[in-house]
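Exercise: predict the fold of this chain.
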Amino acid sequence: MNEQLEEQLKGLPDRPGTYLMKDELGEIIYVGKAKSLRKRVRSYFRRGNHTYKTKVLIEEIADFDYIVTDTEVEAYILEANLIKKHQPRFNIRLKDDKTYPYIKVSINEDFPRIFKTRIVKNDGARYFGPFADVNIIHKTLGLLQELFALRTCRKDLQADKPEERPCLNYYIGKCLAPCTGEIDVESYRQLIDRVCLFLSGQQGELIKRAEEMMYQASERKDFEKAAHYRDTIKALEKITAQQKVMSGKNLNQDVVALARNEEDWACIQVLFIRNGRLIGQDYFIMEGSQGDSDREIMGSFLQQHYDQAISLPDEILLGTMIGQLDLLKEWLSGKKGKKIRIYSPERGEKKRLVEMAADNAVENLKKELIRLKYQRERTTEAVKILQQHLGLAKPPDHIEGFDISNIQGTDPVASMVVFKGGYSSKKDYRRFKIKTIEGPDDFAMMQEVIERRYSRLLSEDKSLPDLILIDGGKGQLSAAYDILCKIGLAEQEIIGLAKKEEEVFLPGQSESIIIPRNSAALHLIQRVRDEAHRFAVSYHRKLRSRRLTHTMLDDIPGIGPKRRDALLRHFGSLAEIREASIGQLKAVDGVSSKTARVIFDYLKENTRP
């Protein structure tokens, strides 16, 4: 374990929260929750009986981040939101919206229904959740049904078109029969309003009513019913605890707070609340803030941050008030097209959110100062050490790494990644389709890509990299160097990195260079090599998947290019088309009932790896 991680582990708080494990490239590879961040995160780095998966994860952890919360329940729900957002490869991930269930109230209907759903739409209905335990929702909906006798049918009921007779639920006292006009719209809405108040967090009245019914059942010696009410009350109380991380209103809010240390460094923390739930956080170290007041730092941050923001929230909650608040409100409201509230709450739930942001600002400031110290050593120092090992004339601040990806010559592609000053520069990445080589000839493919890349730089009179890194040993390096000589770049610095023994090869030298395993220089070129490999493989998989998808759809009788493209535009992927029902397939332009049946049957009967 490196010194940076050791220092970060010492500063972990003994509080609930979520943690995000990162690899050498800064990619989030795992998100977890903890009752105590200090105990949980430290446990990864202690010797113990870890599972194989955890051992592999630990080997790849180069850094970590975390968000402190008030309760473990908040951490639990936040963990799900972050997993959905980042899709870390070491987490068990759901690819759709079925992570957690919601309670939906269809207030856009004359007689709204209340039911469980896992899909949230912008359809005018109200959604409450998400909830971690689906059993809680079932018990809650059961109690609401018993107390209010609301309808459960899926009929499209309209107040001006009553039906002749109600269903069985009406006769057994489980429905008020709005379908027949037994209850009018206004009276039914009043019941719905009471339910929404409860789901918004005002559970006290309903819990009190459930307790009364529990005691009444007990007095009747109906102990089974009394036990049912007892369990339901527990479920309602558990819902109250889970909703602490949510807002009672489906608002979009940013919560902004500031922290400073003894050296006068400043950190701004932002919590992002969307549709009433906390979905993530970000923080910013404010440079050149020494000597400025908190109000000045906060005002400068808000101006710069929201100037480049794509979307704006409905409310901005501040931990530190600023000068010229009216000017900021006018500017942002004009940018959003509607009024934005900006204020510093003094009590209640919103005050608690500001305090949570402030707590995270303190923790992130401590963590960032540790990271900055060791980041400099890992990047700028690594470049200088690499120069010494390779005997280069100047530090290789600009490195370009190449890799080839193909399966037996099919869908061959190449990748080029760029590192500047020891950091990856993703905006400069490039990927190539192999155009001139047939069959599995990696050497020839590498020559094609090197020639295309550097012939173009020469023709456009652009600067060359300080170092080229080829993923491979002597053979790959020799092939690439021959092309460089051919186009007049024999003096260009280039190396090959062989993965088996992590040997470094230089052109014209039979002996390899062995860089110590614990050297920051070796870690740097390993990061370049691994990133080039990842980028190449991801592009190859994308092209191969696209080819297989199009081929399979083209094999279906009656599906030509137009229908194929319409299906892919509508569903997004072959996997989604395979999961679609006949009714959903019919909704695609140009797909008749007969064709939908053909597609459905074909995809069920045929599979591709």
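Check your answer against the key: Confidence is low (pLDDT under 50) at residues 94-98, 242-246.
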